[in-house]
Amino acid sequence: MDPGVELLGRSDLEALQLERLRRTVRRAARSPFYGARARQYGIDGERIKSLEDIRKLPFTTKQDLRDAYPYGFLCVERQHLVRLHISSGTTGQATAVFYTQRDIDRWADLMARCLYMTGARPGDTFQNLSGYGLFTGGLGFHYGAERLGLLTIPAGAGNSKRQIQLMRDFATTVIHIIPSFALRLMDVMTEMGVDPRRDLQLKIACMGAEPYSEEVRCRVEAFFGVEVYNSYGLSEMNGPGVAFECPARNGLHIWEDAYLVEIVDPATLEPVPDGMLGELVLTTLDREGMPLLRYRTKDLTRILPGDCPCGRVHRRLDRIQGRSDDMFIIKGVNIFPVQVEQVLMSIPEVGSNYRIVLDRENNIDTMTVQVEVTDRIFVEDMRHLQRIQNKITRELKSELLVTPRVELVEPQSLPRNDGKAVRLVDHRNPYNT
Amino acid sequence: MDPGVELLGRSDLEALQLERLRRTVRRAARSPFYGARARQYGIDGERIKSLEDIRKLPFTTKQDLRDAYPYGFLCVERQHLVRLHISSGTTGQATAVFYTQRDIDRWADLMARCLYMTGARPGDTFQNLSGYGLFTGGLGFHYGAERLGLLTIPAGAGNSKRQIQLMRDFATTVIHIIPSFALRLMDVMTEMGVDPRRDLQLKIACMGAEPYSEEVRCRVEAFFGVEVYNSYGLSEMNGPGVAFECPARNGLHIWEDAYLVEIVDPATLEPVPDGMLGELVLTTLDREGMPLLRYRTKDLTRILPGDCPCGRVHRRLDRIQGRSDDMFIIKGVNIFPVQVEQVLMSIPEVGSNYRIVLDRENNIDTMTVQVEVTDRIFVEDMRHLQRIQNKITRELKSELLVTPRVELVEPQSLPRNDGKAVRLVDHRNPYNT
Ligand SMILES: [Zn+2]
Ligand SMILES: [Zn+2]
User: Where do the TM regions start and end (chains A, B) (predicted)?
Assistant: First the structure.
């Protein structure tokens, strides 16, 4: 733990942020990309008088990183770099992130802080069930764990049986694992007759890299007998170690000494109030090789209001709710599929699948929500179905501020695409069939 | 470069070794395994008066490591460990190697020294085409490269096309690669029309982890336009960084400040003179978590006599010639298949394959060497064949001190097992058919 930073008062933290933000803006201008922007917009560190002044700066997007590949964001000479990570992304064109030795050290410090926060200590055995190499999750956790003095097993991804053998032989207490591999490991252990609560010493599981629901957390905790800590990061911001849960596990503390956080409406790009869902925008405050200003992460989350009982002033992010790319606009209102999902999943009569269908009738947008009911509902009871339909409509309207048409359908009747649920069908765009 | 260590005079280096050896013997006795041995043999650091006194100590074998798995060789409390590597070996039962933070730092120093010796410098881009995780080759080179200040790309193994893309995009100058992957990459580049000499900036290739011949080195150098540096290490001795070539490339300097080297006859376990082939036996001189005393590596090599023009006093090992497990005894003489191979391959009329057949006739051991001639030989010329046969017999006798029967056979006529040449057939053991 770094009490000098983690337990700073809010005003001291913000003073530190402002100092670092000004330094970052000045430093960023050394890169070809931000240098051109600085000339274009006439912005330098001196014009940043308060943290709010960051809004004078334009956003940086993934596309900017792609266009400037490979060296457009570099602020130091190449001989000062010691590391390069690549993310190939889903669309093909790669983006590169460069690190100086100082960047690697600060990143390891942040990761050590995260692991310390979960309760991991020297004497613990940390098994890193994560791919190494260009993926930042492996080396990121690895360096943090060694920095903290954990006995680190660079186990890598896959090879379930060897993973279980290692956990047993070295009494592993802390793991880092992606959610889908955790679920897979549960199956393998069950097949092998391994009961982690009886046969292993696991206490803590750090899970991230893929979004996962509270339900997955509960399942993993119950099976392995661990506390699961949610981990958030992205390679553009070093990798893991951007935000992490504390033992209160009421959201992820974002390390505000290293990252300046904004939540914006993805349509208007204006800030949204605390508690409201929006796109996470991050500015590096302590990076030397490749600072990024107002980087649009595309990840949807919100700032959770209120203080954390752990005493850390660093604000808390809600778990990632999805990608801003999924947002749609209907009757002038921005809606994320996840908002619909949250309403539906809180209603016990709703089954496991639903679908949003957008259409245009007489030049008016319509939104239909098709909802599978659970197989515990007797579908011949029309009055009961009508009550459920009314309840769903009411609650969606209250959340979304538009009134969708709600259709109840039988369990397992909605189409699936390669086993994956299709959440949104937009018939309004003639090119999008 | 560490001139204080690398350019020490011989007597200063040996004084350093003796001091470290005594410290290592004392420290090792803290482990359960060496503690029991120290009581059994009455040996402690005080009885080590000279480097030769190491011969009072018994050897340590891979089987000892297996039997003591997992913690039998540990000299520190678990909370002082930060890393664990596992080697599963060919026979299944794993062995574990533990590292303190100091061990990791010293290992990174040794690797940085190796890379520096090849000419790599800050400003170079180092692409590590090596598996990460439990395999020590990946993280070993990675830490050394960062320590030296190279721009390190943790590319990992496989994915040839992405490797080539990375080399191109980031003007990679130094690579670490295993020989079989280098040969594979040559094929892929040829298919893609990539000419490394024209399209890439490669200068240096570090190759190790698998034994390879001088012929493979020449092919890789010619194709990639690089200088290939031979790398030697084993996970029991940290991993890579035990011995490495300097620009003279006349053998691998073994870092004698970190490893005490012996070459022994694998049958008698007595030391062999410099220049003679034998089994490499290593003692760690600078390891804290898990010292090893007189570890039998099973690797066959020799000390190359004479001084190196580079000025380093650390002695040079010949490239690894094979495994001592392959040794056989005939008429009381120890012979390695590689000795036979070296004689044969120096004779131009010999083709690419040969086979050693051992038999027992009237209680007398016999050794027959079947040799494919090259397809440039006109096999009907009996007098020519007789001359070749006589030459081979004479040279084998001079090297081995036994006289084998030599049979010349036609090209491609000797049996192969799954495409792999069978070098030794021993009919003397009735259980070994
Ligand atoms: Zn907290
Ligand atoms: Zn030399």
Answer: none
Expressed in angstroms and rounded, the spacing between residue A310 Cα and the centre of ligand 1 is: 4
Token pair for A334: 């921005």
- Residue B361 Cα to ligand 2 middle (Å): 49
| pTM score | 0.85
Q: How confident is the model at residue A432 (pLDDT cuts 50, 70, 90)?
A: very low
Closest chain A C-alpha to B160 CA, distance in angstroms? 14
Lateral strand order in the sheet of B322-323: B259-264, B278-284, B295-301, B322-323
In percent, the amount of chain A with pLDDT more than 70 equals 96
Name the closest ligand to CA B243: 2
Q: Which of residues 152-181 of B touch A (CB under 8 A)?
A: 152-156, 162, 165-166, 169-170
Distance between CA A156 and CA A173 in Å, rounded?
A: 16
Measured between alpha carbons, how far is A152 from A146 in angstroms, rounded to an integer?
A: 6
B308 CA to centre of ligand 2 in angstroms: 5
Give the number of C-alpha atoms closer than 13 A to the C-alpha of residue A222, restricted to the C-beta side.
Answer: 7
> pLDDT tens for residues B250-264?
999 999 999 999 999
CA-CA distance, A384 to A377, in Å (whole number)?
9
Name every residue whose Cβ is closer than 8 Å to that of residue B201 and which is 6 or more positions away in sequence: B167, B171, B172, B173
The Cα angle at residue A255 between residues A80 and A205, in degrees rounded to 5:
100
Bigger pLDDT: B214 or B224?
A: B224
Report whether B358 contacts B428 (CB < 8 A).
yes
Do the beta carbons of residue A284 and residue A20 sit within 8 Å? no
Question: Is the CB of B87 inside 8 Å of chain A's CB atoms?
Answer: no
Give the confidence band of A231 by pLDDT, cuts at 50, 70, 90: very high
What is chain A's length?
433
Please write the tens of the pLDDT for every residue from B384-431.
Answer: 899 999 999 999 999 888 999 999 998 878 886 655 567 888 888 654
Burial status of residue A341 (CB atoms within 10 A of its CB: 0-12, 13-18, 19 or more): middle
Residue type, B354: Y
Mutating which of B65, B66, B86, B127 best tests the A interface, going by the most A Cβ atoms within 10 A?
Answer: B86
pLDDT surpassing 70 at residue B367: yes
User: Is A92 an interface residue toward B (CB < 8 Å)?
Assistant: no
At A433, the pLDDT band (50, 70, 90 cuts) reads very low
Q: Please, what are the domains in chain B? A: 1-324 (3.40.50.12780), 328-432 (3.30.300.30)
Spacing, Cα B273 to ligand 2 middle (Å): 21
Kindly report, residue by residue over B25-66, the tens digit of the pLDDT: 999 999 999 999 999 887 777 889 999 999 999 999 999 999
**Separation of CA A155 from chain center:** 24
